[in-house]
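WARN no homologs supplied; continuing
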Amino acid sequence: MIVDGFIINYGTDQSAFSKGFYSKIVLSILYLIGSKDKSTIKRTDNSIDAAFHFSVFVLCIWMGAASFVLEGVSISRIVGIFLIFGGLAAFNLIDELLKVIRSKKTSPSILSYATEAALKISLFSVFCLAFFFLVVGEWVWELKPFYEW
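OK structure emitted
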């Protein structure tokens, strides 16, 4: 998000979508490496796994939102496929969040049920957004390679 806010100029830069995508995919790959490298990190929780799922979820949601907001980016079915993977990452993230909530609270409350329902509704909306992109979109890949910046 810092890269989006301070470095990339979405108003004038024609390669802003590509730069934003590549910055987020690098961050997601770093979290993937950190979450799968069990030999160097000794821990009892899965916080780095949750961070990886969150970074993939943010990447996919950002791609969907940027496709709507940016003028030079069309609605693409490829973004719909990314949104499906983002929904799967959100499913894993929600699972991790619910484990944390259930471990902190001994007895279920109305707040925990409301949180669980809100998370599941947001997960459903991600899959609805992916379905929209797959139905309405075109098979267009809007990302530019590094050498065209």
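Residues 76 and 138 are 5 Å apart (CA to CA).
OK
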